[in-house]
Amino acid sequence: MSRPLVGALATLLLTGATAVGAGTASAAPQAPAGKAKAVGFAGTVALSNCSGSLVKLPNSGDNDPGLVMTNGHCLETGMPGPGEVITDQPSSRTFTLLNSSAGKAGTLRATKVSYSTMTDTDVTLYELDQTYAQIKQRYRIDALKVSGDHPTAGTPIKVVSGYWKKIYSCDVDGFVYRLREADWTWKDSLRYTSTCDVIGGTSGSPVIDANSGQVIAINNTGNENGERCTENNPCEVDENGQVTVHQGTNYAEETYGIGKCFAPGNKLDLSLPGCDLPRTDEGLARHR
Q1: 184: domain CATH number?
Q2: 122 and 177 share a domain?
Q3: What is the maximum alpha-carbon separation in the chain?
Q4: Residue 4 pLDDT > 70, yes or no?
Q5: Which residue of 84, 130, 159, 195 lies most exposed, with the fewest beta carbons within 10 A?
Q6: Considering the domain boundaries, does residue 48 fall inside one?
């Protein structure tokens, strides 16, 4: 995976790329007018070491506490281990909320980690101390909407990094039955076409359907130097157990099922029908 960045001298671990300053990174070209939604930075956030976004789930209401989404491996207390599920962990982490031109709109603050894991997927969801309506009133920023539908191959996408203030443009190349990296395994991962050559610090970036403007996945990893199933070098595993390696290829984890695990009020409920996120009662989890 792309490890979180630590300080200004951190090494970028995706694709072996060299960092460019956030002020010099440029946004990728927009898709042709009339077809695609204009995708900017509004609603994305910068963490201390990763990217993320203020998100609204399909059933979220304006008066619900806001949620910030990033990777599980961006969790401030360290990467969750294989099989580990973290819920309702107090947190006061702050996030820089960006406007459409990547300027600072304000600062958001978490009250807790609602959910975090690196099992089956790679996601952390923070609950904030403000509602969507309060954020909208104070900062004039809307949350990004998370699609409730499985993404489709060939869809044009934008990977929007709040950390680097850069937008990557490519298409959904396809889907991976199992993506394995070191001790972690992710299910039904999304594979990018080659122009989304994301780098360290883009971890947690929302992957946005350029046609609908909705979030369909969360950026998380790529094969850096062609190794097989090692850290920073994920491998693809098909239904028959056959392993393939695609050096330089980058991936994301789908988000369409997350909303099925939240009750009204943005309250996590892993027992809801259709919720497939790993649960804390499976004998695998550790509360911290």
Answers
A1: 2.40.10
A2: no
A3: 52
A4: no
A5: 195
A6: yes
